[in-house]
Design a protein that fits this description.
Blueprint lengths: L22 H14 L5 H15 L3 H29 L1 H19 L5 H30 L4 H30 L1 H23 L34 E2 L2 H5 L2 H9 L1 H12 L1 H7 L4 H25 L5 H7 L1 H13 L3 H30 L4 H18 L1 H11 L3 H7 L2 H11 L7 E2 L11
Antiparallel strand pairs: 1-2
């Protein structure tokens, strides 16, 4: 995806002659893509869960099991999505993802059995949580280096706004037109949001239009609080094979698993958990609205700290917030307690989300980032796939979500230790012409 890093100002294409760095336009489209991922995210399925149970006559455990299988299928597909991103570029892949996500929503509007629901989950998770999370964060990481952490935080505004508004939008659609027609409306919304902007504005990399990352006149330090050095035309670069042979990659994948597993689990079951505590579905949906702005604050906090603190330390520190959020959820029985839980979970998830996006190009460079992120996202999505199942099993076996929430508290401390153990990648190649690997973190 990255071509000759040397800009040629005298022959810049028209698209690069904006009075500001063109990467900011890319960032806006990436934020829009992150927002458009909402139909494939757990918070949207949480709103539809009771409709699936009533409309299809299946149990909560069956829904969770189908969601698990669909998410595991999506986790496998994201490896190929990452390779496709490196091969075909973000413009084609964004259009394909938006089209397929909309078709998946239409499929869900017509399901009448368990196997059809599995197919719908697989499509929506592959192209919602998978493609429309992988592609935007990867392309922003390619267009920004020194400003990467803050640029990713800005991009994530799209996803955070979706988390606050889309559950309410879906809930209103279900009340207004029924759950099947709601999915058709969601498909049309997805297509309208993303397809045309992606076609018109997206470009693969700054180098592809004669620019350098961040709009710099010469290549510079990559920032991100890391001990790295670059010079014009030189950049640390890893192939996916080299990255997979490092201990750091696997430790960091595991370190991000608590965020994926616990976050997906509680958000998928959130409406059911809240109603089991005597709170209304509108309150449960309102917690998503609290989650959104607090997630934004967590993202910007991570973006600010990433230039001062090594990313693996931030990843370890964020695990404590997950444990605190689970304690608050266990005790939540009143409106203010539910909202406090939503605020703590939002800050924590936003903080960890941004940190997890920043850390991969810092460790492994930009050139093969799509393929590398395909592998890392496979790990994260596999963890997310198992997220709802412990809570569903706890409810079916004990009649309460409490054992599942307690079990969720075991994983974050282990993930914190893994992040601290990640250390530095020690082997690899650097730059388009080769060179010695540059130590990071």
């Amino acid at each position: 995806m990255i071509s000759d890093p040397r800009p040629h100002p005298e022959s810049l294409p028209r698209v690069a002659r904006t009075p500001f760095y063109y990467g900011w336009i890319i960032l806006v489209i990436a934020a829009l893509a992150s927002f458009a991922s909402a139909p494939g995210q757990t918070y949207t399925f949480s709103v539809f869960q009771d409709s699936f149970i009533e409309g299809l006559g299946v149990s909560s455990t069956t829904i969770s099991a189908l969601y698990l299988l669909g998410s595991l299928t999506a986790a496998g597909s994201v490896i190929f999505i990452g390779r496709g991103l490196d091969r075909f570029g973000p413009r084609i892949m964004l259009v394909v993802a938006a089209l397929t996500l909309g078709l998946g929503a239409i499929w869900l509007s017509r399901v009448d059995g368990a196997w059809q629901l599995y197919v719908g989950f697989a499509i929506m998770r592959s192209f919602g949580q998978g493609a429309l999370q992988l592609i935007p964060s990867t392309v922003v990481s390619i267009w920004f280096v020194r400003k990467r952490a803050m640029a990713l935080a800005l991009m994530a505004l799209g996803g955070s706004l979706a988390g606050g508004t889309f559950p309410l939008y879906a809930d209103a659609l279900i009340d207004g037109v029924g759950w099947r027609s709601a999915w058709i409306a969601i498909a049309i919304t997805t297509w309208g949001l993303l397809i045309i902007p992606a076609i018109i504005f997206v470009r693969s990399s700054p180098e592809s239009i004669g620019l350098l990352p961040d709009g710099d006149a010469v290549a510079g330090d990559d920032g991100d609080g890391d001990e790295s050095a670059t010079h014009p035309g030189y950049e640390r670069t890893w192939t996916v094979g080299q990255a997979m042979r490092t201990r750091a990659l696997w430790l960091l994948i595991f370190a991000g698993s608590a965020q994926s597993l616990v976050g997906t689990g509680v958000m998928f079951q959130q409406v059911s958990i809240m109603t089991s505590k005597g709170l209304s579905t509108s309150v449960a949906a309102g917690v998503f609205a609290v989650f959104a702005p607090t997630a934004i604050s967590g993202q910007f906090l991570s973006g600010y700290l990433a230039s001062k603190v090594r990313s693996r330390y931030l990843l370890a520190a964020g695990q404590g917030g997950i444990v605190v959020a689970m304690i608050l959820l266990l005790s939540a029985s009143e409106l203010w307690q539910a909202y406090l839980y939503g605020a703590v979970l939002g800050v924590t998830m936003g903080f960890l989300m941004n940190t997890n996006q920043v850390i991969w190009p810092v460790y492994f460079g930009r050139r093969n980032l799509g393929s590398i992120r395909g592998v890392t996202n496979f790990g994260m999505m596999t963890a997310a796939a198992f997220g709802p199942l412990p809570l569903a099993l706890a409810l079916d076996i004990t009649g309460s979500y409490t054992p599942g929430l307690i079990a969720y508290m075991i994983l974050p401390p282990l993930c914190g230790v893994a992040a601290l153990m990640a250390g530095n990648p020690l082997t690899g190649s650097s730059g388009p012409a080769g060179g010695q690997p540059v130590p990071v973190q």
